[in-house]
Write a sequence for this structure.
């Protein structure tokens, strides 16, 4: 297939105007301003459009897609109590419907890859039917003893014996320092290194989490203590320092949120280069302290954007996340924002050059957005409120000529 567009965003701030991309099978094999059509080759002409790498949402909980608008923006511990109450009523059918709806919402915003935090391992049995590239991060909590069902165990083991190649990948997600024990974090670290699995965790998200670890007190500590976690004395340790102290930081671990940090945390981040995931709309939902994005970028810390779940958001559209964040961080260039949803998450997931860029040899995950007159191509993509004009995942066209394909 030969695809032509008014502009092609190559990645790392580079653009071709106009540009053409040749795809063979699942890979991009050639990119240039002008290419000749080969015998038997399909031609796709995307007029007045910008062709971009498909967007990558590095943090979402698709299990909760059906909970949109059902949780109030109260304190974080109160929100946790309410989501636990609502989760108890979710049926297998409602979870499958939420998953399918979530993947549809992602695709309709130009997302081709997603890091999904999966609380129900049996849903991995649906992986063969998912049209997007997905990292299934198993969410792990050990406050109370829990035995997986045979179905859940089979679903996970199948990823090792019969992985749903090429779009499904397994990852590990110890939930957070307040719900996962030191032993669990260390087990995850060792298992991830043995099986070469990506790892992510929530950390330093709320002021209540900070109070729990720094002062050994507060509403969140009361909540998790009731669930079985031993109470702890204040040690003047941040949640991130606690993770480092117990040996729970896996190399390359994606650290989600990091809203509350001390100077010792900054030293650790600057020297260890962990990728960070920021979820702007969820951040605003909880009215957290301003996110230190400029400082992270100035230190060379790789920052990705995610949406979190519809239990603390009203959209799964990464373009809206950028628009939300730009109100607080107006000095960041459009091309830099776009990198946070394409090339940076690809590198964070260990796929530098294979995803998040339009180059020879990369996988053909592509999205095209209408180019609005007067805007540069990155700005036009960010400001787009429409569905993508064209979507391709692993070389398979998912949308073209105004219609979605099976």
């Amino acid at each position: 297939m030969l695809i032509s567009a008014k502009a092609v965003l190559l990645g790392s701030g580079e653009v071709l105007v106009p540009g053409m991309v040749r795809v063979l099978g699942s890979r991009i094999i050639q990119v240039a301003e002008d290419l000749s059509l080969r015998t038997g080759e399909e031609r796709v002409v995307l007029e007045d459009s910008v062709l971009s790498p498909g967007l990558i949402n590095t943090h979402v909980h698709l299990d909760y897609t059906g909970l949109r608008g059902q949780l109030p923006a109260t304190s974080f511990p109160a929100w946790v109590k309410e989501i636990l109450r609502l989760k108890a009523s979710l049926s297998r059918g409602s979870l499958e419907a939420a998953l399918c709806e979530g993947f549809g919402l992602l695709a309709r915003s130009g997302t081709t890859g997603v890091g999904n935090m999966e609380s129900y391992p049996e849903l991995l049995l649906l992986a063969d039917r998912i049209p997007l590239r997905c990292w299934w991060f198993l969410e792990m909590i050990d406050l109370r003893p829990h035995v997986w069902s045979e179905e859940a165990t089979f679903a996970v083991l199948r990823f090792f014996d019969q992985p749903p190649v090429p779009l499904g990948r397994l990852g590990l997600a110890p939930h957070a320092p307040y719900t996962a024990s030191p032993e669990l974090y260390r087990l995850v670290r060792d298992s991830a290194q043995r099986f070469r699995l990506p790892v992510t965790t929530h950390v330093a998200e709320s002021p209540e989490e900070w109070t729990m670890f720094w002062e050994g007190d507060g509403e969140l500590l009361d909540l998790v203590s009731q669930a079985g976690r031993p109470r702890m004395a204040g040690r003047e340790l941040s949640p991130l320092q606690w993770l480092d102290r117990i040996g729970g930081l896996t190399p390359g671990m994606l650290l989600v949120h990091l809203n509350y940090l001390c100077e010792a945390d900054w030293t650790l981040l600057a020297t260890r280069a962990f990728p960070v995931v920021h979820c702007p709309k969820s951040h605003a939902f909880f009215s957290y302290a301003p996110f230190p994005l400029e400082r992270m970028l100035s230190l060379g810390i790789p920052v990705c954007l995610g949406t979190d779940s519809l239990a603390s958001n009203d959209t799964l559209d990464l373009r809206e996340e950028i628009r939300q964040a730009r109100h607080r961080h107006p000095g960041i260039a459009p091309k830099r924002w776009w990198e946070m949803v394409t090339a940076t998450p690809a590198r964070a997931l260990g796929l530098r050059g294979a995803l998040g860029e339009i180059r020879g040899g990369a996988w053909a995950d592509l999205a095209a957005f209408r180019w609005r007159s007067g805007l540069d191509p990155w700005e036009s993509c960010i400001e787009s409120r429409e569905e993508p004009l064209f979507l391709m995942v692993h070389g398979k066209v998912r949308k073209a000529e105004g219609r979605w394909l099976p």
About this structure: The chain has a mean pLDDT of 94. The chain has 14 helices and 17 strands.
